[in-house]
Structures are given as C-alpha cells and as structure tokens.
Design a protein that fits this description.
By secondary structure, the protein is of the alpha/beta class. 40% of the residues lie in helices and 24% in strands. The protein has a six-stranded mixed β-sheet with strand order 2-3-1-4-5-6, sandwiched between helices. It is globular and about 50 Å long.
Length: 192
Amino acid sequence: MSTSVTNILLVGVGGQGILLASEILSEAFMLAGHDVKKSEIHGMSQRGGSVVSHVRFGTEVFSPVVPEGEGDILFGFELLETYRALPLLRPGATVVANDDRILPPAVLLGQAEYPKGLADKIRQKFPDLLLVDGQGMALSAGDVRAANTVLLGAVSKRLMIAEEIWQQALEKMVPRKALEINLKAFQSGRSL
C-alpha cells in the first residue's frame, strides 16, 4: 500500500447517519484536492443492522475497499460494532467511538448479553481511543440526530483538512433546514 493513501472506516448500526457522514468526509477530501474512493456495506441497515463504510483518500486511490489490517482511523458510531471492526485496523491506528450501545436482536430476545467493558477492551488494543458522548453533545447542539456530525467533528481534528473545507462540505451535503444544528454539533465535536 502506498503511504499516500489514508484509510478510514465508519461502522455502526442502520439509522445512525453513517452514510451521510461518509458523504461529508468524501466531499471534504475532494474539496481539499484529494482522490477519493468510497464503498458501503449495508446489512439490513434500515432494520438496525450493521453498516460499514470505507473511505480512502490520497494522491491516487485505486480501490474503494480498505484492505484488512490497513485501516488508519476507525470512526465508530456504536461500541459493539466498533469493537467488531478492530481487525480491520493497522497497529497504532486511531479510534474515535461514540459511547453508544444499541442492543442487537439476540440481546433484546434474551439469547445473549451485551458485552461489558467494551471501551476498555478497545483501548487495550488501540490506546489512541477518543470516546465521545455523541448523543449528549448533539442534544446540547439542538438535535440528538446530529450525533453523527459531533463524531465527524471529533474525527476532523485528526485529519489535515482546513476547517473552512469541512464547513463547505457540511453546507453542500446537509439539508438546509438542519444545517445550523449540524454546524454547531460539528464544532462541539472539534472542541474535544
């Protein structure tokens, strides 16, 4: 793999705004002059199933899929999904994770238990973990649904893209009626 490509993985559960976040990421990288490739895998995403989005950017990107073990940044919207995606990361990668737990069907049906201590388990493998209260910060910005934008703000601080470019990408990709709240949510994530 060329070192000029940065590999970002977004993981979570359907309905968390992962696809919008990957669109905003891709737009920001394009506005910054990078070659960008994106791929998404939806597993029953409209029913709360797993969603994984791959975003790769750099001077020249040939494939949209992050090779296993080469992810640079894991952008997790739900803790169990974040933990499940750890094998996709390279040693020393960065993890920005929402401190959110969405119970899978087996847990809801009493057939399994939600694993305990996931944040600690993630931190043991990847010490560069930023755990974010996405819902709480989004609610403070005006709408709990903007948690994805809070997380995007937190991730943006780990990428060398000017703040104005992030704002342009948000203005282009977020519906006008939700823009003000999303800009506020983005800024709260950047402040972490």
